[in-house]
User: Which sequence fits this backbone?
């Protein structure tokens, strides 16, 4: 049995001041195996973040079910941890204080909190910066704290919503490598939403492609590249093949974003 | 040398400004543009200042006014922040309190001065009450606003870890609102000082405001100026202290990025 | 990526929604009514000394009395004209000065320290000396209002100018705008929200100044009446006047708030 089972999930909103509904996602079915790294791609508005938030239990579903290890998702829980695009660090706490934050909220034992916080701060390479405050850190470093905070609570599932989108291209590449490095240790089930096709292929065992209007899953591509991944693979024929396939899937949606229509 | 000059630019220009003002003042009177009766002269004021300082008059007046100010401000902090916290917890409480808080803000408290005298007698308690009511609103409003406007991203992140309402309040809203509350404190201090002085003008038996009115009745402008200068100095010291507080509590916000 | 948490809402039955929207107003009104009831009962039953606290019924009676006997329009007019003159002068001096200080760093360097010193001190301390300079008539009150209102205007205008996005200036320069053009088309609109805030703060200070000024010494005006009734312990009458002036100040503040909201809606979020 897969660890995450998503069956016929739909999330609909009422438009403000009117009676019609707007479907962010509809008819989504997905099964994710334990220990696999799944990325979700698609153009803007296809509902990939919405899906992730629903799995995290932060927004309610209109229809369908989401089960993790057989348990229905009713709200946030200690079995899942989320890494947002915005690092969302408490500015008045140090790095160490921030990594402790999730542990405190989940009421871990006092001794464990400090020990785990220290351990995971070290894991993401920020041991020397443990007493620094967020405003003294770069964007990449802040995201590392964000990741450490999520890992520290020992979730069964790691959910990441475009965590590297706000970083520059080089930092992004470095962070992707490091993320895999860290992930290889425990091989937690991970769901990673991104815009960047290369990033999606590089990190994943499977890539889920979503389309919009309404938000739905268009295709699922298994990535048969060997692990551990290296940046050299980016130039391989297999990688390029995947890249083309995914581009084609997404191309249809990009069409609707055209700035200037064809002349009549 | 120029580096030192640059860093203390504000201080230096401030000193120059004051020097110019004092000089103009002295000259204006000396040359007869302004009657000495109306404004006195810096020299006379300085002499009177020294005299009052030595006799302890200044200390007594400042002491009384300061005491009234701190009591009123302190009470306003407790009530304002306390009520602000309550109101942030429940919208019903907020709506219940709202008309009264805004009345305290819109209404010149001093208008009810005779009532305070009747209830609390002439002297410190009345002034403290006026200062308290004057300072209440900024503290309440800023506490409420600071807690309500807790950073959305932080709240969302905390919720994803299963934070409950109490956690959100204690760990995010409250610490995050400290800068705004301190800013409210600065506003409240100004209003409290105004309340103290205005109250004392109308008939306390001691204090800086009282001494201004007292000497005013006797048309002794020199002594009036002494007390006036003391009030200004007091206000400046108060504001500077609070500004320091503000930067101290805000230090985690300075810097690039957030 | 848009976070849908903001507008995910369960549909409420339409009547529930109406109550929801007016809930705040209902509770507030209810609380004021409850207060008035308690006040009236407490005064009638003697739980508090009605001579000192008056009661809603007495205040109403006083209002009628004032309407009939007191020449309220005269006093209101005196206060209103003193306030308006002082406030207009404050605008006339404060806005240009604030703009000048905001744009010129050198000017700011020298004018800031003494100005800030005066700003932090309550202007009401100058009341006695203004009386000596300008007498007990309207002139001294206009002066107090002027001094009370001018500083928030200057300080906030200055802040508004400094906060205007410098990139807007760059864009204007890139299009070859003259200094005057820049000032009118970029500076003033950019600083407008802050200027309006300053005006709103100044209103409160101005109203306070005129009332206290008149209470201290004057021949007519709302503050004058307040002082008279206060000394005669006619609390009901005092409250009517106090309420009137509060209402006036509050109404003005609301008006400026509305303008502020209008202006803010034009601005993009920073």
Assistant:
């Amino acid at each position: 049995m897969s660890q995450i089972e998503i069956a016929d999930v739909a999330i609909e909103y009422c438009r403000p001041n009117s009676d019609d509904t707007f479907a962010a996602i509809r008819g989504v079915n997905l099964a994710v195996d334990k220990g696999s790294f799944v990325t979700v791609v698609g153009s803007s508005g296809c509902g990939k973040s919405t899906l992730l938030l629903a799995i995290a239990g932060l927004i309610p579903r209109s229809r369908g079910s989401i089960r993790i290890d057989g348990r229905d998702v009713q709200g946030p829980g200690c079995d899942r941890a989320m890494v947002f695009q915005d690092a969302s660090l408490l500015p008045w706490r140090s790095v160490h204080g921030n990594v402790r934050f999730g542990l405190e909220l989940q009421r871990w034992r006092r001794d464990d909190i400090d020990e785990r916080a220290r351990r995971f701060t070290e894991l993401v390479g920020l041991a020397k910066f443990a007493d620094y405050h967020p405003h003294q850190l770069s964007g990449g470093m802040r995201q590392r704290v964000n990741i450490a905070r999520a890992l520290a609570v020992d979730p069964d599932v790691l959910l990441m919503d475009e965590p590297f989108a706000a970083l520059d291209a080089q930092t992004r590449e470095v962070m992707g490598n490091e993320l895999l490095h860290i992930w290889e240790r425990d091989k937690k089930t991970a769901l990673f939403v991104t815009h960047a096709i290369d990033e999606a292929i590089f990190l994943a065992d499977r890539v889920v492609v979503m389309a919009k209007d309404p938000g739905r899953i268009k295709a699922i591509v298994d990535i048969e590249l060997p692990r551990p991944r290296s940046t050299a693979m980016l130039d391989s024929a297999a990688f390029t093949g995947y890249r083309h396939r995914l581009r084609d899937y997404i191309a249809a949606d990009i069409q609707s974003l055209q700035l200037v229509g064809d002349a009549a | 040398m120029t580096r030192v000059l640059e860093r203390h630019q504000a201080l230096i220009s401030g000193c120059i400004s004051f020097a110019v003002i004092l000089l103009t003042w002295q000259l204006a009177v000396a040359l007869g543009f302004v009657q000495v009766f109306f404004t006195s002269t810096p020299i006379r004021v300085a002499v009177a200042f020294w005299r009052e300082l030595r006799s302890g008059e200044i200390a007594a007046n400042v002491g009384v006014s300061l005491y009234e100010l701190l009591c009123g401000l302190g009470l306003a902090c407790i009530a304002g922040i306390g009520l602000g916290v309550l109101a942030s917890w429940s919208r019903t409480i907020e709506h219940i309190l709202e008309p009264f808080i805004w009345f305290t803000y819109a209404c010149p408290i001093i208008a009810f001065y005779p009532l305070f005298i009747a209830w609390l007698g002439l002297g410190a308690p009345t002034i403290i009450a006026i200062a308290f009511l004057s300072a209440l609103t900024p503290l309440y409003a800023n506490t409420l606003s600071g807690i309500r406007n807790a950073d959305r991203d932080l709240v969302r992140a905390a919720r994803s870890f299963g934070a409950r309402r109490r956690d959100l309040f204690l760990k995010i809203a409250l610490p995050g609102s400290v800068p705004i509350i301190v800013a409210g404190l600065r506003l409240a201090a100004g209003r409290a000082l105004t309340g103290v002085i205005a109250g004392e003008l109308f008939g306390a038996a001691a204090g800086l405001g009282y001494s201004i009115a007292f000497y005013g009745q006797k048309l002794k402008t020199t002594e009036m100026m002494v007390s006036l200068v003391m009030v200004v100095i007091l206000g400046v010291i108060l504001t500077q202290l609070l500004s320091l507080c503000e930067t101290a509590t805000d230090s985690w916000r300075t810097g690039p990025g957030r | 990526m848009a976070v849908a948490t903001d507008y995910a809402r369960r549909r409420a039955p339409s009547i529930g929604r109406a109550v929801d929207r007016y809930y705040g107003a209902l509770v507030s009104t209810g609380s004021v009514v409850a207060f008035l009831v308690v006040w009236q009962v407490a005064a009638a039953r003697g739980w508090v000394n009605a001579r000192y606290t008056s009661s809603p019924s007495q205040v109403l009676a006083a209002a009628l009395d004032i309407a009939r006997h007191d020449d309220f329009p005269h006093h209101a007019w005196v206060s209103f004209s003193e306030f308006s003159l002082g406030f207009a002068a404050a605008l006339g001096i404060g806005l240009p000065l604030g703009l000048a200080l905001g744009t010129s760093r050198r000017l700011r360097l020298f004018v800031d320290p003494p100005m800030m010193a005066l700003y932090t001190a309550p202007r009401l301390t100058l009341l006695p000396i203004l009386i000596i300079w300008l007498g007990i008539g309207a002139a001294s009150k206009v002066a107090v209002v002027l001094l009370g209102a001018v500083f928030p205007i200057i300080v906030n205008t200055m802040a508004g100018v400094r906060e205007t996005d410098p990139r807007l200036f760059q864009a204007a320069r890139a299009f070859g705008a003259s200094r005057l053009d820049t000032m009118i088309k970029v500076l003033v609109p950019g600083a407008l929200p802050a200027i309006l805030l300053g005006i709103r703060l100044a209103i409160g200070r101005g109203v306070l100044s005129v009332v206290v000024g008149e209470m201290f010494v004057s021949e007519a005006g709302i503050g004058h009446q307040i002082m008279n009734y206060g000394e005669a312990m006619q609390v009901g009458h005092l409250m009517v006047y106090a309420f009137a002036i509060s209402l006036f100040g509050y109404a003005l503040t609301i008006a400026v708030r509305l303008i502020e909201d209008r202006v803010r809606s034009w601005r993009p979020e920073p």
